[in-house]
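Dear colleague,

Thank you for sharing your sequence with our group. We've completed the structure prediction you requested, and as agreed, I am returning the results in plain text so they can be pasted directly into your records. Please verify that the sequence below matches your submission; if there's any discrepancy, let me know and we will rerun it promptly.
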Amino acid sequence: MTNGSENSVVIRDLVKRFGKFVAVDRLNLDVRQGEVFGFLGPNGAGKSTTIRMLCGLLRPSAGQATVAGFDVAHKPESVRQSIGYMSQKFSLYNDLKVIENLRLFAGLYSVPADAVANRIAWALEMANLTGRENSITAELPGGWKQRLALGCAVLHKPPVVFLDEPTSGVDPISRRQFWELIHHMAAEGVTVFVSTHYMEEAEYCNRLALIFRGKMVALGTPSELKQRSLKGELLSVTCEPLAQALEVLAAAPGVLDVAIYGSSLHLVVKPGGSRVAELQRFLQEHGIQVSSMQPIRPSLEDVFVALTTNQGADTRSAEQ
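Please find the predicted structure tokens below.
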């Protein structure tokens, strides 16, 4: 990551309303040059709405934001000329060849005529599509299509790139290859602002903003968020029957939160040396067979569940 102090994206009290519905609620954020910045949250959290405002495609209801030095509300065309944008849905022309899509986007992005050949060659190499220039886009595997879409989005070498759920529906291997491209761009000083609901992808980001119901509920590096966001000790519990254990543990003394995690349960409990023994006895008294119960390090999914649970509880309390 580039260590320059310049911020590529600056957001102050940004709001977007659709009638009475508040999709983005007083968002404040700075994103540094050369940073891979993750925008993490469930579907409907306000991620795509925020990105559309930052790309100059949607006018904010209130607040301010600048991207690459341009105000998104007052100079949206300048913003659009300074960014690359890739949406969550594959947006290229399936009936065109790879090279035809690249030439089309070179024209749309006003790449100088004497630079088109070099930029296309660069994009093909970056996306690992050299030799596939004449392939019909519709016939490409999903991961290759996403790499082509990224190549088209950065043909004009913008200083800031917005990727909105870029790996949705892509297999894990292709997803990892796509993230290698992202980090290659960031190493060259490009700011990459990427939204995702894949928790494992968030680990690849330099910093993260966790978004829930239009609000930012946490900000920091993946390590920072995992260290400070849980207000107790995290335990992994393997037991049977799982559904009954979930219900029983939700009312157990000392348990702050409980959630299903694959074939086990993750508990956030008040700190205490005898907590594991106490909970094992509690479960056994309720007819639940415990195979294992042990402390573990939190994942980002644990952090996000804890934060959104707390946020939801705060919202319900405020409404009552």
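Summary note from our side: The mean pLDDT is 89.

Kind regards,
the structure core
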